Every structure is written in structure tokens, then in C-alpha cells.
Amino acid sequence: MPWMTETRAPVIEVHDLSFGYGPGEPVVKGVGFQVGAGEVLGVLGPSGSGKSTTQKVLTGLLRPFEGTVRVLGRDLRDCGPDYYERIGVGFELPNHYVKLSAIENLRFFASFYQSPADPMELLARVGLEDDAHKRVEGFSKGMKMRLNFVRSLLNDPDVLFLDEPTSGLDPANARLIKDMITEQRDRGKCILLTTHNMHDADELCDNVAFLLDGRIQRIGAPAALRSSQGTGSVVVRYQDGQEQGSETFPLEGLGDNAGFLALLRRVTVLSLRSEETSLEDVFLATTGRRLS
């Protein structure tokens, strides 16, 4: 039985999804999850785990598949061109018409939709208004990623599929994109985000699913997953006479920890630093593998 999220009325429902690229073992094996309106589900896993393949099935790029996928109340197998009026897709590797300018790219894709947003307004949101009339071939990867992201918003979609949306971005622009993702969630949009960036997932996602070798190993809210592995630890750096040292104590029950209290009485404390359990720690404990 695949792991399932407990969620509000589901916008995305996936049951026992399997997909393979040819003869042999499938790349995605019996995956199941649900995502509601106003919710972000992050699918975490290392390269080759099946994250992007799962996204491509849900966006209609890969068929046929086994299992059941329902999006916006309809079986994915029954969805036609109108499906793309309701979803937005941000690919991991930006694919633009590089001989066209940024605004020409957005205007071209806007022509596919009945009521598109103002392309120039979207470019301004991600700091590309001054580059609107420049050819995309001269853009950096980060600029292409920002253009890629706002392209997914052109039709004001109900469902967003984002694959590594902050890849290649500097911290300031990554913050900008993450704030816009949060804004979309707060507007009630359903978001499926695939990433190997545990910090993005911890910050953005209501639930995360650990995907490894095509199977979901565990799923839940980031805080609940982290607390399941303990509350973390405290590192005490100290001066003891002429010597300096450090000791680590579990955060849980710290106030009653005899060793910790004895150390504080004996030495001069130079610093106290808490180390919380991370999603990387939980992923490693669950799968025996690191995310990167």
C-alpha cells in the first residue's frame, strides 16, 4: 500500500502510478499521493529517483502509464487541450526560443491561452523588465530560470508543477521565487514541487514525500518528519583552564541532563549552538541515502 497524504479536498489524486521507458523495471513504481488546494507537496529525492518522470506523467508528457491519476476532478487519460488552460509547468531545464527576446517568448506562449496575464508585468515581478527586449540567448541560467518560472504563471493556473524552481539562482532571486510560490499557495493554488534541495522543501512545503528508486519511502509534514528523528542537539564549546573543547548533548531533556549541568558548572562556556534535525537527516535515516 503506497504512502498517502492526509489532505483537504484533493486537486491531484495519484494511486498506484507506475511508468517505464521501455522493457525492464519501471522508473516509477506504485506511487500514490494527494495534494489539495492551497497546498504544496514537495517530492524529494536524488537524481534518478523518478521525480521528474512523475511530474512528466502528471503534465501529460509521458504516456501510457499504469495506475490512476486524477487532476481537477478528471481522469488524466480523459484530459484534452483544455487541461493546459488549468495547469502551469516550470521545467528543470529552461527551454526557450533563444533567438527571441524575453517578451517575445512570453507573448508567444500567452497566445495559447484564452485570458493570459500581462507578460511585462510578470517580467517586472522577477526583475527582468529591463531585459524584456533582449534575446534570451544572452541570458544567464538564473535569468532563464526566472523567465521559465513566470511563463508557468501566464494562464493563472489552478495547478502548478515546478521542477527544481530555484536551481541556478543566487540567494536573492531564489528568495524572490520562493516568495512567489508561497503567494500562489496562499491564493489557493495546488502545487507539486520536485527538488533535491531540502531547505526549499522545508520552507515551502506543507508535506514532503521521499522518493527513492521510483517508490515513495515516507511522506508527511516537514516538522513532523524532523521531530520523528529527535529534537536535535546542543553543542557546547568551552574553555577548561588552558584547554578548549566541545561536547554535544541531546536537546530533549537537556535541563535534566547531569553531564550537561556538570559541564556548565566546571568550565567557562564560550558558545552554545543548537543543531536541529534536518530533512536530510530524516531522508538518510529512512532510505540510507543522501539527497545529493
Summary?
28% of the residues lie in helices and 29% in strands. The chain contains 9 helices and 13 strands.
List keywords for this structure.
292 residues, globular, 9 helices, six-stranded mixed β-sheet, disordered N terminus, 29% strand, alpha/beta
Structure description:
The protein has helices at residues 51-58, 102-110, 119-125, 141-151, 171-186, 198-204, 222-228, 258-266, 279-287; strands at residues 10-19, 28-36, 39-44, 66-71, 74-75, 87-90, 159-163, 190-195, 207-212, 215-220, 233-240, 243-250, 268-275. It is an alpha/beta fold and 292 residues long. The strands form three sheets. It has a six-stranded mixed sheet, with helices on both faces. A four-stranded antiparallel sheet has the order 2-1-4-5, covered by helices on one side. It has a three-stranded antiparallel sheet with strand order 12-11-13, covered by helices on one side. Strand 7, helix 5 (171-186) and strand 8 (190-195) form a beta-alpha-beta unit. The longest helix is centred in the middle third of the chain and has 16 residues, at 171-186. It is globular, with a radius of gyration of 23 Å. Residues 1-7 have low confidence and may be disordered.
Rg for CA atoms: 23 Å
How many beta-strand segments?
A: 13
Main sheet characteristics: 6 strands, mixed
Mean pLDDT: 92
What is the general shape?
Answer: globular
Proportion of residues in β-strands: 25-35%
Helix and strand arrangement:
Layout: E1 10-19, E2 28-36, E3 39-44, H1 51-58, E4 66-71, E5 74-75, E6 87-90, H2 102-110, H3 119-125, H4 141-151, E7 159-163, H5 171-186, E8 190-195, H6 198-204, E9 207-212, E10 215-220, H7 222-228, E11 233-240, E12 243-250, H8 258-266, E13 268-275, H9 279-287
Parallel strand pairs: 3-8, 3-9, 6-7, 7-8
Antiparallel strand pairs: 1-2, 1-4, 4-5, 9-10, 11-12, 11-13
